[in-house]
């Protein structure tokens, strides 16, 4: 059932997202035909579709990265934003653009800066948690994330003029992304999703603990570092596209593992559900923006999708905690 | 020759746990490791399986040091049945046992065979778990968990099997079942088996050779009839007792009478000093 249900959900959410952006079925057909002619059709091709693809790629990357972190660190609360990797990537991009090292619109520069920052954040967490168990990793992750957040604030104070533009990105937004931003992400994220899927056996064995992994032929530390490397590659790209999207990487993996039977289905399910979550959040953000602004959109910027994922994610977490307390 | 240690030592926090262990386990042998709690039995098993790097000395598998083999190469030869199941939420018996295929198949090979891998199904069948294959590990009884641990080790299809207290927490019947099963498998597959056991009678009945560890050193090593003596009971285990011969199975049986007020014997000169 899951095999039919989840892909169907992906298609429905994508259509919902496009229509929330104001696209009509006719525009879609014209774009599919390869001849966007009218203004509406060109808006769909040049803004609506890249925005949809951005949300889908970033959502899939975060969902799978969260799954990799939760299984390899053996902690249900490990997530891109709680292990300092996502905050580190955000810091990397922000630092690189603030100091003029890379152009804000360069896909390659953004990804490179995000990778460096993500590795920095992950390394801080790794060092702080060294020698401790899975519980300590979460504390270390929170500390590392706070450190990264503090450095971001420092950068903002350094250049207060940029505050307005950066704020949306700090909350997480896929608005205003065009095809030029996606030239790397369209192959980078699918590539690492495939690697993550191919490493399924490694992550599931790591979940059983170091002794279990070692006697099954895995060097635990090396294998864990490799899996974390895949997660960082995914998170950095997602952060360079959409900023600090929260909760997708925390909540989606749990749902994916619950919905699928064997470990082989976890990565595909986390990718699809992650895409659904972020595309759905962005569609809701667009609809809400219209409701707030009335019918006239004008030049106002919309609600960032990160606000929706944060609110929805918090609600899901409260529901999970409530259900565990009152079964 | 199969597995050999040379001057194997290991310590933790400056305290020596094992010192100068020279042990050779021949192909096809069944060896029991006995000793009191903390005598280094489980540590020795972990050193022998390469999970723990030795402080000094070497472990050789067919003349090749374990330190020069990859973890996967070792796991294709040596399977370990640990004392506990990995605590993975939602993992089913079949999924756990299938993990035993990792050393042989690698990550990509395992993606091709979820749920229909012949070696996995055979290990499930041998341990009588086929009917429970879809059950989640948390829902298993103690005996079923034990069999799942054994099935995981069997799925590795290694020729050397290490069992760390395979009968712990089991009732009499399940203990016999597990040990009988291991004995049958050993005969059928020509396995080399090293078992950490607490029950000396089981060691005497189900293995050819007993290695008694005492304070980090080998105290006695030989066939059960030679190793199990009243002296061993007092020196290693700190109890006064008798050893009789079981009339039906023809193996020695230990009858502990009373704990000695002085406890186990002090170290011999070769054993490490404490403190």
UniProtKB/TrEMBL annotation, chain A:
Membrane-spanning intervals of the chain: 49-70, 82-102, 108-130, 137-158, 178-205, 225-249, 269-289, 301-322
Predominant localisation class: membrane
Domain of life: Bacteria
Gene3D superfamilies recorded: ABC transporter involved in vitamin B12 uptake, BtuC
Pfam family, one: FecCD
Signal sequence range: none
Membrane topology according to the record: Multi-pass membrane protein
Keywords: Cell membrane, Membrane, Transmembrane, Transmembrane helix, Transport
Cell location: Cell membrane
Family as reported in the entry's similarity comment: Belongs to the binding-protein-dependent transport system permease family. FecCD subfamily.
Protein's UniProt name: Iron ABC transporter permease
Species the sequence originates in: Actinocorallia aurantiaca
TrEMBL record, chain B:
Annotated region (Disordered), positions in chain: 255-275
Gene3D superfamilies noted in UniProt: P-loop containing nucleotide triphosphate hydrolases
Pfam families documented for this protein: ABC_tran (PF00005)
Keyword Lipid biosynthesis included in the entry's annotation: no
InterPro entries referenced in this protein's UniProt entry, alphabetically: AAA+_ATPase, ABC_transporter-like_ATP-bd, ABC_transporter-like_CS, P-loop_NTPase
Keywords: ATP-binding, Nucleotide-binding
MF (Gene Ontology): ATP binding
The organism's place on the tree of life at top rank: Bacteria
ABC transporter domain residues: 3-240
Protein name, UniProt field: ABC transporter ATP-binding protein
Organism encoding this protein: Actinocorallia aurantiaca
């Amino acid at each position: 059932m899951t095999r039919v249900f989840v892909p169907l959900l992906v298609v429905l959410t994508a259509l919902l997202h496009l229509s929330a952006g104001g696209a009509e079925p006719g525009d879609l057909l014209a774009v599919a035909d390869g001849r966007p002619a009218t203004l509406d059709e060109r808006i769909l091709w040049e803004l609506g579709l890249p925005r949809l693809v951005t949300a889908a790629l970033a959502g899939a990357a975060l969902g799978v990265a969260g799954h990799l972190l939760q299984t390899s660190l053996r902690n249900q609360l490990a997530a891109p934003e709680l292990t300092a990797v996502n905050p580190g990537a955000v810091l990397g991009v922000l630092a690189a653009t603030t100091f003029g090292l890379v152009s804000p619109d360069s896909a390659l520069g953004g990804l490179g800066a995000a990778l460096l920052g993500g590795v920095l954040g992950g390394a801080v967490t790794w060092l702080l948690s060294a020698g401790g168990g899975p519980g300590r990793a979460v504390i270390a992750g929170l500390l590392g994330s706070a450190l990264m957040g503090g450095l971001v604030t420092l950068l903002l104070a350094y250049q207060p003029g940029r505050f307005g533009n950066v704020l949306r990105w700090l909350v997480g937004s896929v608005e205003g992304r065009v095809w030029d931003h996606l030239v790397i992400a369209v192959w980078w994220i699918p590539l690492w999703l495939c690697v993550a899927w191919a490493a399924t056996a490694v992550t599931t064995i790591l979940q059983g603990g170091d002794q279990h992994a070692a006697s099954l032929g895995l060097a635990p530390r090396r294998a864990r570092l490799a899996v974390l490397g895949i997660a960082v590659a995914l998170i950095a790209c997602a952060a360079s596209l959409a900023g600090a999207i929260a909760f997708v990487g925390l909540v989606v993996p749990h749902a994916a593992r619950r919905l699928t039977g064997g470990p082989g289905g976890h990565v595909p399910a986390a990718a699809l559900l992650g895409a659904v979550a972020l595309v759905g959040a962005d569609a809701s953000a667009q609809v809400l923006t219209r409701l707030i602004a009335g019918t006239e959109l004008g030049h106002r910027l919309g609600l960032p999708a990160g606000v929706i994922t944060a609110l929805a994610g918090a609600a899901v977490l409260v529901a999970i905690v409530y259900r565990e307390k009152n079964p | 020759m199969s597995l050999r240690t040379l001057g194997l030592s290991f310590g933790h926090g400056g305290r020596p746990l094992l010192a100068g262990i020279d042990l050779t386990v021949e192909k096809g042998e069944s060896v029991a490791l006995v000793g009191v709690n903390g005598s280094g039995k489980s540590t020795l098993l972990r050193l022998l399986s390469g999970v723990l790097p030795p402080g000094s000395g070497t472990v050789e598998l067919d003349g090749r040091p374990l330190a020069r083999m990859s973890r996967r190469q070792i796991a294709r030869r040596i399977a370990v049945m640990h004392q506990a199941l990995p605590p993975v939420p939602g993992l089913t018996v079949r999924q756990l046992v299938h993990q035993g295929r990792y050393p042989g198949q690698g990550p990509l090979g395992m993606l091709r065979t979820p749920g229909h891998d012949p070696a996995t199904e055979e290990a499930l069948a041998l341990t009588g778990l086929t009917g429970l294959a879809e059950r989640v590990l948390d829902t298993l009884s103690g005996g079923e968990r034990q069999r799942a641990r054994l099935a995981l080790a069997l799925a590795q299809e290694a020729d050397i099997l290490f069992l760390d207290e395979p009968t712990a927490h089991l009732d009499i019947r399940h203990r016999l079942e597990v040990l009988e099963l291991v004995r049958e498998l050993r005969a059928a597959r020509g396995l080399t088996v090293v078992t950490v056991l607490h029950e000396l009678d089981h060691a005497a009945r189900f293995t050819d050779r007993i290695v008694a560890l005492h304070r980090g050193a080998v105290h006695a090593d030989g066939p059960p009839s030679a190793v199990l003596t009243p002296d061993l009971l007092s020196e290693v285990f700190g109890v006064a007792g008798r050893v009789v011969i079981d009339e039906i199975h023809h193996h020695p049986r230990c009858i502990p009478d009373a704990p000695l007020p002085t406890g186990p014997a002090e170290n011999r000169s070769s054993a490490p000093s404490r403190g």
